[in-house]
Amino acid sequence: MALGEFELIDRFFRRPSRRSDVLLGVGDDAALLEPPAGCALVAATDTLVEGRHFLAGAPGRSVGHHALAVNLSDLAAMGADPAWALLSLSLPEVREDWLEDFALGFYALADSHGVELVGGDTVRGPLVVTVEVLGFVEPALALRRSGARPGDVLFVSGWPGESAAGLAMLRGGVPMESRDPLVLRYMYAQPRIELGRALRGRASAAMDVSDGLLGDLGKLCAASGVGARIDLDALPISDRLLAAHGREASERMVLLGGDDYELLFTLPAAGADRRQAELTRDFPVTRIGEIEAGHEVLCERDGRVIEVTGGGYDHFA
Amino acid sequence: MALGEFELIDRFFRRPSRRSDVLLGVGDDAALLEPPAGCALVAATDTLVEGRHFLAGAPGRSVGHHALAVNLSDLAAMGADPAWALLSLSLPEVREDWLEDFALGFYALADSHGVELVGGDTVRGPLVVTVEVLGFVEPALALRRSGARPGDVLFVSGWPGESAAGLAMLRGGVPMESRDPLVLRYMYAQPRIELGRALRGRASAAMDVSDGLLGDLGKLCAASGVGARIDLDALPISDRLLAAHGREASERMVLLGGDDYELLFTLPAAGADRRQAELTRDFPVTRIGEIEAGHEVLCERDGRVIEVTGGGYDHFA
Fold first, then answer.
1. B276 has a pLDDT exceeding 50
2. pTM for the full model?
3. Which residues from B are below 8 Å from A46, CB to CB?
4. I want to staple B33 with a disulfide (CB 3.0 to 4.6 A). Which of A41, A302, B255, B291 is the partner?
5. What DSSP letter does each residue of B65-126 carry, written as one string?
6. How many contacts, defined by CB atoms under 8 Å, are there between A and B?
């Protein structure tokens, strides 16, 4: 049974509004929204292409989750409260079970952060998913990439590298239905919205790690006009990552793997210990190095510089 | 020469900010924007797929224009002032001349409406372009699809059908470089932002005609819970459309053709003549029928109902 575009939107993506700041949601030419006074609007968009950003044949639930998560991660990196999303779906065909699954994954994550889908577009074409998210933050408290200063202490949240390990398992033939924690971590990585909130007005700089820690740190340093030094022995490596890949490969996954949606951030040295202790009560955060003058990003072990080859994910390199 | 993603953004899409309400534009995890007090935020998104929404091999300039125009048309239909845009580009390869051309088309239209590109994403994949636009309108003045009432007078702007005629010429072998006015109209149709502004607080309902007048009128009527009657002899048919296709085919193009970005709107009967006279001083608008009780959309000529088969453009029908 072929569903038309409008039936499709109605059936899978139209739900009663839950936010009082949505004056008009899905169904008109555009959405009418009511931003809170005194806040900056925060806007981000990311596109996922089948076979490039998610595996061909990936379950709809994971793709729906992933498409929203990568965007929410951008808001987390700004310290923003997410509010609204728009969804553009290009689909080769209407497979109702896949779409229902996609909507489940999308809404499970949206609901957990109070995000409402307020508009979008569905077209026939190759499987490409674009989500735009909108949120808010007081302008003076927003986290930016450009505020890191020499002497600032460098942190990363959670356990980067696990997504890359999960992806490697899937590429190696592990079925997509696997409940292995590393596979689930790749399929359903969680954006660090709450940590972003806790960092606003506190971190001197922040960005999300979506293309690999080392490459993304390079971008943060370039935006701030600084360099950085990473202590390889301080990197957070989860027990399960270590068990699966050993120290050396795990380290590379932590430094170069993508799709983790962890936050990389800097704290001014003064008060960094106290702040770290406060953060650690609620979030897994690890001190991995420090910001330096210059423009180089160096990795070291026992005081010796170690070269780590390979960079972040650059879609056209 | 292959350009990386970040060089690509820098080279073609990063420009000095021109709007004081852009606190942070392209280059961080998300944009920081400052909406005006007392206004609703208006948000829309549309996706264009090569070979479906634009012809394979279409010049970048036309695709860049088209991708923004279809979105600005949605804002026009709400009576909104456009402000900001985000752009997601999925590209099979980096062809610098095409991208430069795309940016030219995009920015020419953006600049003419004071719109600033504040973020986006570039990925490798099939040629798919998604734009999201954000604008403002006082909530009480916003144009919606749902306000039409029986007795309201029905209008359309400009000369719908010309884009369809231009597309038919291209499909028939006319080269894309043609300067034929109908071809140019298809490649560079202009959104009716100024007319949308003039209608706010005045039109009882409005929407843009992007999928065909008849199908779109059906959506407006469904949203308003009314029917409508179109007087076929009142349809605006441009001289060049008539000269190229004759009366009958032209009428079908006006009723069923897409991509015109004209506005379909209703005015309350009381004062409609005066309002029409005012509008006509600045905009081409034509009275084409009226809103009725019920739910049917009928076309008539000399008091007899004429069946027009074929509907609007439904991407999955």
1. yes
2. 0.93
3. 88, 121
4. A41
5. HHHHHHHHHHHHHHTPEEEEEEEEEEESS--HHHHHHHHHHHHHHHHHTT-EEEEEEEEESS
6. 234
